[in-house]
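Query structure, 397 tokens:
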């Protein structure tokens, strides 16, 4: 018995050492060796979980019982194995996810509601920007410091989008009561059509997702839903404070809290982002017009996330009715992800929206902002009518 335990320990030690060695090679290769997380994930998904568990069961006899499926899902042995190794029997991604960035387990991310073509492999991976070194196909300059300012020489002049036009049946004047707050935690996220790759990300100081945020706020105001938009340069604030890019949500949370304290009537907080999924997954054509598709992201670390999920699901259903296939669905990120809360504990009406991807255009994203304004206005006025029903007229004499 002692010999068996010793052999199991040696095998697990070698497996752990191999994973650390592989991670070290990838980390110190200075990005010369690039393996996309989605590629690894797709490859892993092709490996049978049964085959994996059978192979591991040769050295860990307890796993053979799991493979046979005779035990209950919450068996004591399975629980102890998961507790000791953080590996979920039947999910290969849990074996690799701790060592390879971007590999998400079922606890980390799942679709609550799936839109057309929804695939877990297409979930975005957020890349920190490298604001000085502009890379294109011919570039070969060495990378420079991450805390440098963006290259303003290649920056294009800011172009303001067209003001949304009044539509039949909409209310032309915005309400004095501001109930929606639109902001951007990653405010410099941009598109291939607007800028060049900067390091491994695609950012621009002016031609970025903030243009979509402003357009959405303006469109909501035009439809009679009082909205305000935040124009703070969160990324610049991080640079000024010498804070890591990963703290973007912590920085934007201060903005959200300040807005909520200043205006107690704010109920809805929309954080707009740009995804990195491929164009075929992020583009929809509706009545001959192209749109950037929307993915709603919910942070499970918020203890009241069920209310945010319900809100996102309602908007998803309305989008399916009014703009079929515009929504990619509602996705939940668990408490094991890097952020997992996304400032959504501030209100049940808080959402993170991924508007299109890097291969979409600004125009397509602005079209989506118009559609979102239509959908949210329909939701809002229906909710207001339910919450504040009109008193019945007195009976006529």
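Result returned for the query:
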């Amino acid at each position: 018995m002692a010999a068996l335990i010793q052999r199991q320990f040696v095998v697990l030690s070698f497996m752990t050492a191999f994973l650390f060695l592989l991670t070290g090679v990838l980390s110190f290769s200075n990005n010369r060796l690039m393996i996309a997380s989605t590629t690894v994930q797709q490859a892993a998904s092709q490996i049978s979980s049964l085959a994996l568990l059978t192979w591991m069961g040769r050295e860990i006899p307890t796993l053979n019982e799991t493979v046979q499926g005779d035990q209950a899902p919450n068996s004591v042995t399975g629980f102890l194995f998961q507790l000791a190794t953080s590996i979920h029997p039947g999910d290969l991604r849990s074996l690799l996810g701790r060592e390879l960035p971007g590999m998400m387990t079922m606890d980390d991310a799942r679709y609550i509601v799936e839109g057309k073509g929804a695939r877990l492999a297409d979930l975005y991976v957020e890349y920190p920007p490298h604001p000085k070194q502009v890379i294109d196909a011919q570039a070969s300059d060495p990378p420079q410091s991450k805390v440098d300012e963006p290259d303003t020489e290649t920056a294009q002049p800011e172009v303001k989008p067209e003001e949304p036009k009044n539509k039949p049946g909409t209310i032309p004047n915005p309400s004095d009561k501001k109930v929606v707050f639109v902001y951007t935690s990653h405010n410099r996220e941009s598109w291939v059509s607007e800028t060049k790759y900067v390091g491994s990300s695609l950012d621009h100081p002016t031609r970025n997702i903030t243009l979509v945020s402003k357009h959405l706020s303006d469109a909501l105001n035009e439809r009679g839903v009082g909205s305000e938009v935040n124009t703070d340069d969160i990324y610049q604030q991080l640079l000024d404070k010498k804070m890591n890019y990963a703290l973007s949500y912590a920085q934007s949370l201060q903005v959200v809290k300040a807005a909520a304290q200043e205006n107690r009537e704010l109920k809805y907080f929309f954080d707009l982002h740009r995804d990195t999924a491929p164009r075929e997954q992020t583009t929809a054509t509706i009545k001959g017009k192209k749109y950037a598709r929307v993915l709603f992201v919910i942070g499970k670390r918020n203890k009241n996330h069920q209310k945010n999920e319900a809100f996102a699901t309602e908007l998803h259903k309305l989008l399916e009715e009014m703009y079929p296939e515009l929504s990619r669905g509602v996705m939940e990120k668990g408490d094991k992800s890097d952020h997992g809360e996304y400032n959504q504990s501030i209100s049940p009406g808080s959402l993170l929206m991924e508007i299109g991807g890097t291969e979409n255009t600004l125009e397509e994203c602005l079209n989506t902002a118009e559609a979102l304004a239509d959908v949210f206005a329909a939701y809002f006025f229906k909710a207001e009518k339910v919450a504040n029903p009109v008193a019945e007229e007195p009976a006529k004499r």
